[in-house]
C-alpha cells in the first residue's frame, strides 16, 4: 500500500519527502515518514510519499524515470513544484564501505556520504 499525506502550513516552502524509491526500501522508510506526518507544519507544505515495494533500478539509470515509481515521482514534482525534495533511502550494512568510498563520485557518479 502506498502512503501519501499532504500537510498544509502557510506560505512556502513546499517540501517533498519520498521513500521507497526502489526495491523494498519503502518497508524501512515508512515509519520515519509516518513520524513526519505527525508534525505541525508552521510554514509551507509538507508532502510525504512512500511506496513499500517497487522494482529495483538505480535512480542514476535514465530508464528509472520510465518505471511506474519514476513516473510517480515526476508527477508529484510537477504537481507540487517543491522548493525542497528529499529521498529517504536505506542500505544494508554490507553497502556501507561502498557508500563512503572517497572515489564514489568517479566510480558511481555520486559523491560519498
How do the helices and strands follow one another from N- to C-terminus?
EEHEHEHH
Dominant shape: globular
- Portion of residues in helices? 25-40%
Query: End-to-end distance, in Å?
Result: 30 Å
Largest sheet, spatial ordering of strands: 1-3-2-4
Overall mean pLDDT stands at 86
* Structure classification: alpha/beta
The helix tally amounts to 4
Poorly predicted regions are none
Describe what you observe in this structure.
With 113 residues, the chain is α/β, with parallel strands linked by helices. Helices cover 30% and strands 26% of the residues. The chain has 4 helices and 4 strands; from the N terminus they run E-E-H-E-H-E-H-H. Strand 2, helix 1 and strand 3 form a beta-alpha-beta unit. The longest helix has 13 residues. The protein is globular. The model has no long low-confidence stretch (mean pLDDT 86).
How would you summarize this macromolecular structure in one to three sentences?
The chain has 113 residues and is of the alpha/beta class. Helices cover 30% and strands 26% of the residues.
Architecture blueprint of SSEs:
Blueprint: E1 3-8, E2 10-19, H1 26-36, E3 43-50, H2 68-80, E4 84-88, H3 96-100, H4 104-108
Parallel strand pairs: 2-3, 2-4
Antiparallel strand pairs: 1-3
Keywords:
single chain; 113 residues; alpha/beta; 4-stranded mixed sheet; 4 helices; 26% strand; globular
Amino acid at each position: 500500500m502506498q502512503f501519501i499525506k499532504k500537510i498544509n502550513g502557510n506560505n512556502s516552502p513546499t517540501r517533498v519527502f519520498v521513500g521507497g524509491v526502489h526495491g523494498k526500501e519503502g518497508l524501512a522508510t515508512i515509519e520515519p515518514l509516518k513520524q513526519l506526518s505527525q508534525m505541525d507544519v508552521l510554514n509551507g507544505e509538507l508532502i510525504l510519499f512512500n511506496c513499500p515495494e517497487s522494482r529495483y533500478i538505480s535512480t542514476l539509470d535514465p530508464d528509472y524515470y520510465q518505471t511506474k515509481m519514476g513516473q510517480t515521482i515526476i508527477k508529484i514534482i510537477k504537481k507540487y513544484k517543491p522548493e525542497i525534495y528529499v529521498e529517504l533511502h536505506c542500505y544494508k550494512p554490507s553497502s556501507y564501505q561502498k557508500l563512503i568510498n572517497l572515489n564514489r563520485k568517479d566510480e558511481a557518479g555520486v559523491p560519498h556520504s
